[in-house]
Amino acid sequence: MNYIKQLNSAFEKFYFDDRLNPTHISLYMALFQEWNSSRFAAEFFVNRRELMQVAKIGSKSTYHRCIVEMHQWGYLSYLPSNNPYKGSKIRMTTIRVKKEVFEEDCDLLLEKLADQHRPTSDPAVSRSSPISEQVMDRHRPIGGQALVPYINNSKQINKNKQPKDLQAVLLFFTEKSFSAEEGNKFFEYYQRKNWKTSDEQEIKNWQAVAITWMDRVELFGSQNSQIKKRTSQNRDNLKTTKMKDYGQPL
Predict the structure, then answer these.
(1) Residue 224 lies in a domain
(2) Which of 154, 176, 198, 228 has its CA 20 to 30 A from that of 185?
(3) Where do the record's region annotations for Disordered lie (predicted)?
(4) How far apart (Å, rounded) are the C-alpha atoms in residues 152 and 149?
């Protein structure tokens, strides 16, 4: 007997049984605990006072009414005892939900069908089976040569190594808000170097090099403007005039 399985089945039956009230469920749980203590015996004896204390039932009439109703509804079999020194006998009903019964019946049916249709010996597979030949012919190439998938191993050629002409460079510099004169300087400089870097490496992307050129131009331009500003200030400080007033104190 599976304790958890039986208890879950009981709770599932409680859910759909509208005749039950909390007193019925409390009494059933007290009886279930006694059943578990007796290792799920087919029959076991109970003491009314102990059951009433565990189930928290304070009235004898309520106890007798609930246990008789559960007997009538098929939850248990109640065999009362008239002997005060001997407890009443209880037989708990094994509750199984319809789903479990259906699954067990299906398993038995499948086992019977498997026994009926199980072959006595495995038939030998013919080597000259037409089905296997068709499968082999399906994968056989027409010309008798294995088909090898074409793999394109050619590397993509980088078209941005060198500009097409001077016009492409001037257009690129103009788009970046630089003058055409600066673009002409860039083109002539790297044209003389055969489009190679300072370490004699071939340029892979002339546009990236052009952007670096523009950044340097902006950097040097800002530095030159600051130097010119400082120089002009120094010149103003050194300005002198020939008209001097020697009457003013030094």
Answers:
(1) yes
(2) 228
(3) 225-250
(4) 10
Note whether 73 and 94 are within 8 A (CB): no
Q: Are strands 76-79 and 44-46 parallel, antiparallel or unpaired?
A: unpaired
Tell me how many domains the chain contains: 2
Q: What whole-number distance in Å separates Cα of residue 6 and Cα of residue 95?
A: 6
Instruction: For 110-159, write each residue's pLDDT tens digit.
Output: 666 666 666 655 544 444 444 444 444 454 555 555 444 555 544 445 56
- Determine contact, residues 54/30, Cβ cutoff 8 Å: yes
Range of the domain at 219: 166-234
pTM of the predicted structure, to 2 decimals? 0.41
CA distances from 21 to 1, 11, 69, 73 (A): 26, 13, 11, 13
The dihedral of CA 33, 34, 39, 42: what is its sign?
negative
SS3 assignment for 122-182 = CCCCCCCCHHHHHHHHHCCCCCCCCCCCCCCCCCCCCCCCCCCCHHHHHHHHHHCCCCHHH
CA 76 from centroid of its chain's CA atoms: 49
State the average pLDDT over residues 25-40. Answer: 93
Dihedral of CA 99/101/104/108: which sign? Answer: negative
- Is position 214 within any domain? yes
